[in-house]
Amino acid sequence: MIFVTVGMHTKGFDRLLKKMDEIAGTSGEEVVMQIGHTSFRPQNAKWFGFTTESDIKEWCKKARVVVTQPAMSILDAQEQGVPVVVVPRLKKYNEVIDDHQLDFARHLEKEGKVIAVYDVDKLDAVLQKPDLKPQELAKDSRLVNALKKYIAQFEPK
Amino acid sequence: MLQLMDAFEGHQTFFITYDSVRTRGLEHKYLLRNIGTNPLVMASASLSTLRILLKERPKLIVSTGSEIAIPAFYLAKLFRIKTIFIESWTRVDRPTGTGKIVYPVSDVFLVQWERLLSKYGKKARYEGAIL
Question: Considering only alpha carbons, which residue of chain A is nearest residue B4?
């Protein structure tokens, strides 16, 4: 099963969901989508609008691969040890207010933290690759430690 | 923010966030309507935030965005509550609108990509990212 999740973003992500619905129709593999505020209604894939964080993690766990935008949802999938393919929302399609997701995807890709697809027409081929592997989740504790230090400074126990 | 909760161990916390299926399960929370760019909703959110801060009297406000942080950070300045802003992990080269607005009043301002430092002033620091 392929799980597709586009988060809480107030803009739709029709481009990705239409392509994934097409793949659901042709590949024979089950596709489940969390469509958020997207107006497009999938015909072939199972879909729902929103759900809880634990439910999203549950869907990620059951999936062979998770397709999402480059955002916090990457962590939900990687925590479950599932390969993640990210497709950035682009400003030119009015999917987002600026191209920060594009920058973000490029940097994560360069660091080997995700597989990024920029052209949805290439999604099918990437999803069918036999060597899709979960990326290593390398949580960085520096930020939490820095935050602890400031909290101790501002609110001593 | 939930990825950073380990940092708050031993401290009492509450959330001010947007109402959604994902946030309704949080324990000690205040849920506001999504502000976006609507000035009227921003005004009403500011009043709600004022009421919440007067009731809770926090010593510190920590935010990872988005615009919901704006009234909280400016009211915090007024009430001398300390503030920490953490710019989104998804921002490599481009600051968020919220980041730019709260930068002047933040006590601590952190970015999650070193290269973003050049887009902010001297106060901004890079001390790691969530991943």
Answer: A144
